Amino acid sequence: MNLSSTIKSIQDIMRKDDGVDGDAQRIGQLTWMLFLKIFDQREEDWEDDAGDRGETYQSPLPEACRWRNWAKYKDGKPQIAPNELINYVNGTVFPGLKDMNIEGAENNAHIAKAKVVREVFVDSNNYMKSGTLMLGVIEKLDEAINFHDFKTRQHLGDIYEQILNDLRSAGNAGEFYTPRAITQFMVQRVNPQLGETVLDPACGTGGFLTAAIDHLSGQLTDKSSPEQKKSIEASIRGFEKKQLPHLLCTTNMLLHGIDVPSQIEHRNTLAKGWNDWGQNDKVDCVITNPPFGGMEDNKSGSDYLIQTRETADMFVTLIVNKLLKDEGGRAAIVLPDGFLFGEGVKARIKEELLTKCNLHTIIRLPNGVFNPYTSIKSNLLFFTKGKPTETIWFYEHPYPEGYKSYSKTKPIRLEEFEQEKAWWGKEKDDFAERQESELAWKIDFKSIKEAAEAKAKPYWDKAEKLKNEASDTLRQRKYLTDTLVGRRSSDDLKQLLIVQLKDLESDLKNETGSQEYTLVLINALDEAIKQGSNQKIIESMESAADDLKKSAENLQSQARDEQAAGDRIYWPIYNLDIKNPNAPEAESHDPDELLIKYKQLLADIEETQNLLKDELAAALAHHFEEEEQA
């Protein structure tokens, strides 16, 4: 029985248990049991390593909570009777693991392992009520899953795909599996080196991180020092918001030789305050497939400089500003088409991305890459922080011959990316070897931006001038209204205005401030003083203030129009949904499109006929003229 079938049979057993309600609880139950068994088998490796050093291994877990001491069959028999098992799990195993002392975990690897386990179990629950059925699950796990066997480890992905498919069925559509071909290709192109830090801020079950571990491990040689081998563990970082994927990711790290996956944190990356991110949080490489289409709550991201609640948008601005090292930090992100053509907030985020980073490559994936989990068309964006974008290269990944889409049984394969790898080139020479083709094209973004800014600038300058004029006009209005404050009933109102008028005239004579600005106020006061009575003076001042308010509103409206005119020229440059100009035109069978093409063809034929008639008439006229002259 293969691993996927084993997992299915375990879930069938759980369906018979009255305490397990629905797929989500079955998956949660399976995951913590799977984790504890794997941790126990990793402890066997650590015991052997300690023995080789002449030391005695000490488990970070309470003895009563270790898989081998309560779950593992001995001599073909369970250690705890079925009628006592559930009480033991609920009363001993879970409290013991949740209440472990983790003080000092930062400086002690032994305690750090305890912390990893505690974090896994803090939000886990035992849902099973039948000891007999739980023993059935334990027996299946012990029989079929031996993680000392390398072949079994290789097929861990089968388990993951089965669990992820069930997660999707349980309504957790946001947790979908990134195909191995995608994770491996992205890691290879970012090319993290030994000693560099790699982060996935939305790590899910750890696909990108395990690909990074494999990539870094491939750089080790027989001459590599123990410190270099150990450095991989310190290089890998991940954050995951949801409990089940975090548990699976932690398990995955254990299976890939990360003895203390304490840097796989169970937390919401986007909930951390903007100013709480520091220099120590910045990494060399960010490789991720952030959840898109979801919305964060009002508490998350409230202090972000660009306000948005859409998760993918928040991740992009966080990566650009807070997660990548300022000089040479490299990133690869999976993003949907909607990010490329999105306007408004998305355009502002793209402006920031292209200003602070060199977005050098966008791989456009075909439909179906993430089937059956989502049908949203996606892209792979590669960028380096430290200088603005000048040229953006696009590469349209084609289907393999004979494919019209991908599926679970026909997934995208790493070999398909060989053409991209051969085309890729080197960033240090600005990808000088890249060539355009039917699949590859580029845009000169620097020139496009400079041209757009030059065209938009007159409108923006006019808008700024109008806004300043509106601001001055509102200040003039405030001057007039403030003049009346506390003076409306004063017998000396006229005399006070005369004094103010003289002050203004003095300012005008001495060229203090703007003459036009001062003249407006002088004319308003002069006109009011001529009215005579207090009531007439007040009415004149209020009328002048109202006129200034209307004038300011008109100026503001004009400013908005000018700003919008400039924006209509500038912001469209951030529509990165650039179609392939080199691709052969696809044949369409749409009746409306065919009719349009037919009408165009008739028009072209008629135009050609008229040109021929004109040329023939001109030739005949010339012929007859020659005959007459002869």
Structure summary:
This protein is 54% helix and 8% strand. The protein has 630 residues and is of the alpha/beta class.
What does this entry look like structurally?
The chain is α/β, with parallel strands linked by helices and 630 residues long. The chain is 54% helix and 8% strand. The protein contains 21 helices and 9 strands. It has a 9-stranded mixed beta sheet with strand order 3-2-1-4-5-7-6-8-9, sandwiched between helices. Helix 13 (311-323) links the parallel strand 4 and strand 5 (330-336). It is extended and about 110 Å long. The N and C termini lie far apart (103 Å). The model is unreliable at 170-174 (pLDDT under 50).
- Count of helical segments? 21
| Major beta sheet summary | 9 strands, mixed
> Percent range for helical residues?
40-55%
Rg value = 36 Å
Which structural class should the secondary elements be placed in? alpha/beta
Order of helices and strands: HHHHHHHHHEHHEHEEHEHHEEEHEHHHHH
Q: First CA to last CA: what distance? A: 103 Å
What's the average pLDDT?
Answer: 87
Estimate the global geometry from the Cα principal axes. extended
Strand order of the largest sheet: 3-2-1-4-5-7-6-8-9
